[in-house]
Amino acid sequence: MRLCVIPARGGSKRIPRKNVRQFGGKPMIAWSIKAAKDSECFDRIIVSTDDEEIADVSQKWGADVPFMRPVELADDFAGTTPVVGHALQWYLDHGQELTAVCCLYATAPFVEPAEIRLGYELLERTALDRFVFTATAYASPIQRALRLDSASGEAHMWQPEQFRKRSQDLEPAYHDAGQFYWGRPQAWLNSCNLFEGSQSLLLPRWRVQDIDTEEDWIQAELMQQVSIQQIRKY
After folding, report:
1. Would you say the pTM of this structure is higher than 0.85?
2. 2-136+175-233 to CATH, choices 1.10.10.10, 3.90.550.10, 3.40.50.2300, 3.40.50.12780
3. What are the pLDDT digits (tens) for 108-121?
């Protein structure tokens, strides 16, 4: 069985109730549920939550909520890996055989069903104990990153030896796009590093946006409006 787990706790602090807040005409989590359904990759799509409202909204949009997430996995320090591990262990304990598990974030409104499918196809060609995740390039060379002194406000380069190098001569760097992670059940249960030695599915920067603050939310809304305008042109 191929399982999709969408983690969505109710206690978001920086954007209260962000998983069920309206985004582009539907609850934020509905975008992920719809993408998972449209990908046609999964035998089960579930939401792991500790919140009754999130559970109700998720079920209305077509996801299952077979259990309520335990309190110890619903605080500010709960990591993705143990949350997904708990969900898949629940299925194993109920006699279900799992072949692949995808963690799909609840705040990923730009995730594409076709890319979820591509991620699974890449997993099929990958070592069993590794993951497939979405990534994108940093907009600026990380070798020229700055730090600001908290007392004086002075700027200092992390790597001052890179100052005279041209941007195009610096090695590109990438970061997690925060959309989805495909992995084998045992990899999730082993709490492996999601990134080390794993395969990445590269996305363009204009389709990647973390949504952790109100500023992030506004940026995501602007990105969606631009996308809609482009679609209407054609």
Report:
1. yes
2. 3.90.550.10
3. 999 999 999 999 99
